[in-house]
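REQUEST
  id: r-88c1
  op: predict_structure
  target: Cytochrome b
  payload:
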Amino acid sequence: WGQMSFWGATVITNLLYFIPGLVSWICGGYIVSDPTLKRFFVLHFIFPFIAICIVFIHIFFLHLQGSSNPLGYDTALKIPFYPNLLCLDIKGF
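RESPONSE
  id: r-88c1
  status: 200
  body:
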């Protein structure tokens, strides 16, 4: 790995020194080395999947519960989430 990766990892791990034990767990020691690179790679690989799951859970509960109604209108016009709104969410509309 290059100098930019090394110094970037060094800066990020130095920002985490205020949490006791976290840096030694992430780095595999007290210096940035090969285990640090592998752990950063795993975190960067897994994080998008976790983020996508959180987004889907958020959309599910938003459509299940409904969003806030600041004007207080009581309406019986409800569109079912599946398949109508789910297809719109998947398409991005």
